[in-house]
Amino acid sequence: MSGTIAKPDRLTCGPSRAARELDLRRGEFDLAVNLGLIRTVPDEGGGGRRVARAEIDRLRAEDGFPDALRERVATAGTNDGAKLMDVTPTRFTSLARFGLLVPVRFYLNRYRTVVWLYLAEELRQFAAEESNARLLTGRTPAEMREGLKAGLDRRPRNWRGRHIGFLLRQAGDDPWAHAAAVACLLDPADVSDVVEDPYERAHLNRCRPRLPAHGAPGSPAAELAQELMTASEPDEVAWFRADLAHTMETARRQRPAPRPAPEPAPEQVPAPEQVPAPGQVPAPTSVPEPVAAPAEDRSVPPDHTPSHGLLGWLRRRGRRPTG
User: Fold this and answer.
1) Is residue 289 part of a domain?
2) Looking at the 3D structure of the chain, how many domains does it have?
3) Which top-level group of life is the source organism from (predicted)?
4) pLDDT per residue over 112-153, tens digit each?
5) Given pLDDT bands bounded at 50, 70 and 90, which one contains residue 290?
6) How far, in Å, CA of 193 to CA of 201, rounded?
7) Which of 38, 87, 172, 318 would you label with 183, given CA atoms 20 to 30 Å apart?
8) Rounded CA gap, 2 and 8, in Å?
């Protein structure tokens, strides 16, 4: 029938289905979403992000599909990256540790060694820049040698800096989603220090984006991955804390965190009547209203007693006692 609105599941599809229709592996699909190559929409049922059918049609209609899309999300490790740049693996690792090559993903192998992955497209671009030629051949610059000798390794921090960009892109204009994205890369103690209200912290957890999983929860691999995904350098932590505090102020103004409804006050049950003991006069249930004195007696202050008693008072009033 014309004018019929299609069901939501016909207008959008989940990530797994979208990856199949775009001829991508799930990891490639997730990376394409992070890079903004595939636009997603929020699931109205709260089940995560979905992809509109119109977006899938747009991507499938592009020139060179699917190879062109696949090439844009292709990644390389140290050995393959070194071949792409025509340098030795040692030189490649030095460039990455010094922060000149920014990883886009990482995983832990069976020996719990961190394997960093880089966008192949970015590696080719770096090698093609004439200004980088001196970094690819010849003697390593002194500054780089000194930093590497001191144990410098900017790969974890560079990954975090890149990943927060991915998360903020998906958060859009929602301040709670923005704050939750920043909070997920901070140590819980730092989050509690910045966000003292427990209801706000609980709401942040509900908005928390999913970070890449590495091993079973609580396993050594998962703990190592969590360490890599948590801001650790003082200036980095300070930046995240300041951003979290600023975004929380906006979130509170726009949409305060939900709180439990206040409990109703308990009903006051009247006390049971006390039955007086035999011979006991029951106490009055209320204090009687004071009775006003007659008009002729109101000239005497209530707290003043005549010095000569009733007889003197009558004389002063011009009366004589009878009898």
Assistant:
1) no
2) 3
3) Bacteria
4) 899 999 999 999 999 999 999 999 998 999 999 999 999 999
5) very low
6) 11
7) 38
8) 17
145 and 162 in a common domain: no
Torsion of CA 289, 295, 299, 305, to 10 degrees: -60
Residue recorded with tokens 């590497």: 148
Range of the domain at 65: 9-72
Residue 106 in domain? yes
For residues 105 and 118, what is the distance between their CA atoms, to the nearest angstrom? 7
- Give the domain-ending residue among 254, 279, 312: 254
Tens of pLDDT along 160-208?
A: 999 999 999 999 899 999 999 999 999 999 999 999 999 999 999 999 9
Token duo for residue 183: 């909070």
For residue 258 the two structure tokens come to 């939900």
Q: Which of 190, 223, 254 is the last residue of a domain?
A: 254
Neighbouring CB atoms inside 10 A of 171's CB total 20
**Do both 98 and 118 map to the same domain?**
yes
Whether omega before 66 lies within 30 degrees of 0, making that bond cis, reads yes
